[in-house]
Amino acid sequence: MNQAIRNSWVVALAMFVLILGSLTYVQFFAAEKLNTNPNNNRALYRDFGEPRGSILVDGKAIAESVPSDDQFNYQRVYNSPELYSHLTGYFNLNNTTQLEMTMNDELSGNSSQQFNDKLVQLFSGAQSQGASVELTIDPELQQLAYDLIPDGQKGSIVMMDPKTGDILAMVSKPTYDTNLLAGHDTAVLGANMEALTSQPGLSPYTNPATQSLLAPGSVFKLVDTAAALESGKYDAESVIPNPPELPLPGTNISLPNFTTGACSARSEADFAFALAWSCNTVFAQVALDLGQDNIAAQAKKFGFDTSLQIPNEVVASHFPENEDEAQLALASIGQGSVTATPLEVAMISAAIANDGVQMTPNLIRSVRAPDLSVIDEPKPTELNTSVSPDTARQLTEWMVGVVDNGSAKSAQVPGFKVAGKTGTAQVDGRGDNAWFTGFAPADDPQVAISVVMEDVDLATGAQLTTPSAQKLLEAVLNK
C-alpha cells in the first residue's frame, strides 16, 4: 500500500514538474518567438488589454495608456503629438512604429530585464504592467526647434550633446497627430492613414531626421577638410588654386564657385578662406588630389555607411564607391550621389566638437519598472575616432571663422564663440536643400546642431537655417 502511495506521489510530482516546466518555457523562453509570430493575434489583443508603460520627457508623459470602455480596457494617448510624432511613432492593431516599436518589449513589460516581475505576476495573478521610458529630449529646445520650422515647410532640426551623444531635440515637419493612428477601430485607422499619407512630404512610417537621405551640399566640405589634414599632405599654411570654374575631368562641364559669394576675390585660397566662403573649386581639387579612397575612408570615420539603432532606426548615410573623377568632384561638395541624414550632419559637428571622438547618438535617458526601479540607464559610448585632436582643433578654428567672418555670420551669439558651416545642395527639378551645422561654445562645446530646410530658394534657405541655429544655440548657452 505504501509503495502504491509513493508511486502515485512520484507520478503526481513528475506531472507537476512537467506542467510547470512547460508553462515556464512558454511564458519565458518561447515568449519572444510566440509574441512575434504574425499569426498570433492573441498577443496583440493581450497587449491592448494591459497598461502599457509611458514614454516621458522631463518626467511628463508624451505617450501613455489610459482606461477605455471597450474590449481592450486601455487606449494609447499621445500628448503634444505633433511635437513628438516622429519620435514616439504610434501603437495600434495594424502597425507599431518608432519608439513604440523599438522599445516595445520594455513598454509592454516583456523585456528580459523584467523577468522577475513577470514571474511574480504569473503566480500572483497581478496585472502585467510595462516599464516607462524617459527620453533625453529637452522639452524647451524641442518646442523651440519645432516652432522655427514654418508650417508647410519641409525641414528637420537635430540638437545633441557632443560629449555624450544624447539627443536634446529632434523635430521634423510636416508632422501629424499620432492619436489619429492609435484607436481601436481598424476602419477608422485605415481612413486616417490614407488621409495622412496623401499629404505631400509626410510619411507616418518614418522619421525624416534619421531616415531621410538628402544631398548635404557644402556641409560635406568639413569631411574633405578633415581628410586633407589627416592625410598629412595639407596643413593650415596650404594654399590651393581657386579658379572661378574647374573643368570636370572627362566631361565638357565645369564646376563653378558660388556666383554671389566672395570666392572670386582670390585666385588662390587657404582652407580658412575656402571654408568661410565655401569655394567649390578648392575642395574639388583637394578631393581629386586625395582620391576616392581617402575621402570615402574619412566619411566612414564620421559615420557614413553605418546604420544605427538609437534605439530607433538610423538609415546609413552614403558616400558613393567607384566614382570617376568628375563624380568624385561633385561628391566632394555634397552633390552627386552622396547622401546624409540630418542626424549624420549633426554627428559630424559633434565629433569635431568632442576633440575628434564621435559618440553614439542616444534617445533614452532611463527605463524604469512600475516600482520606479531602474531597469536600464544607457551610458555614453564612443562610436568612432573621426579625427585626431589636433585636426579637430584646427577644424574648430576654421569653423569659428565661418561664423565670425564668412557665410554664417547670422549664427553669431553675443558673448560666445560659435563654430559652424553653411551648405546649399541643388536638387534636380526642385528647390535647394539649405543647411547649417555647427556647435557652441567653441572652446567648451555644449551642443551640436544641424538644420536643413528642403525645397527652398536661396533667400528662403538663408532666412530659415542660420538664424534658426542662432536662436537654438542662444537658448542653450543662455540657460
Contiguous helical run count: 19
Kindly report how far apart the N and C termini lie. 84 Å
Largest sheet: 6 strands, mixed
Low-confidence sequence ranges: none
Q: Report strand order across the widest sheet.
A: 3-2-1-4-14-15
Fraction of residues in H or I helices: 25-40%
Which structural class fits the helix and strand makeup?
A: alpha+beta
Shape: elongated
What's the count of strands? 19
Distinctive features:
479 residues, alpha+beta, elongated, single chain, five-stranded antiparallel beta sheet
Short description:
The chain is an alpha+beta fold and 479 residues long. It is 39% helix and 19% strand.
Characterization of this structure:
There is one protein chain. With 479 residues, the protein is an alpha+beta fold. It has helices at residues 2-29, 31-35, 41-48, 81-88, 98-102, 104-107, 115-124, 139-148, 186-197, 208-211, 221-231, 271-277, 280-290, 292-301, 325-331, 342-353, 389-405, 458-464, 466-477, and strands at 55-57, 60-67, 74-78, 132-135, 155-160, 167-173, 240-241, 245-247, 254-256, 268-269, 308-309, 313-314, 357-359, 364-368, 374-376, 382-385, 419-426, 432-440, 447-456. It has 19 helices and 19 strands. The strands form 6 sheets. Strands 3-2-1-4-14-15 form a 6-stranded mixed beta sheet. α8 (139-148) packs antiparallel against α19, α12 (271-277) packs across α17 (389-405) and α13 (280-290) packs across α15. The protein is elongated.
